[in-house]
Write a structure and sequence with these properties.
This protein has one domain (5-114). It is 42% helix and 14% strand. The protein contains 5 helices and 3 strands; from the N terminus they run αβααβαβα. It starts with a helix and ends in a 10-residue tail after the last helix.
Length: 121
């Protein structure tokens, strides 16, 4: 739930931009695989069929939004809970790791700049 007027204003603007076809930064999904699957997940080739197959498998319990929670929520708001039109592109990045700690570190790095800092922090 958004509490500040600036957060509400920013969300409304994002929803409007999405409805008008704006291209958003990618949503970053983190996937934690066991060591065996992680080794099989070859990083040598983007077009590796095994990599695509592993990403298309049902990993819901292992998948987390690392960056883009607000964008994801705004997308649902923009289409009032309906599925967005099929002709709309949505950029997704997958970060695959064998340890949740490395994904948490990346999440912190991505989101550090979103919190106002002062001399005490």
């Amino acid at each position: 739930m958004l509490k500040t007027t600036s957060a509400i204003r920013i969300r409304k603007r994002m929803v409007l931009d999405i409805q008008q076809g704006a291209v958003l930064p990618p949503i970053v999904l983190g996937l934690v695989l066991n060591n065996e699957d992680f080794k099989r997940f070859s990083l040598k080739s983007v077009n590796n069929p095994q990599r695509k197959r592993m990403l298309s498998m049902n990993h819901e319990e292992k998948l987390s939004i690392i960056d883009g929670m607000q964008r994801t929520t705004a997308i649902f708001e923009a289409f009032e809970g309906k599925t967005p039109p099929i002709d709309r592109d949505l950029r997704i990045e997958y970060w695959v790791a064998n340890d949740v700690g490395s994904l948490i570190y990346r999440m912190l790095v991505l989101n550090t700049g979103q919190v106002p800092w002062n001399l005490r922090r």
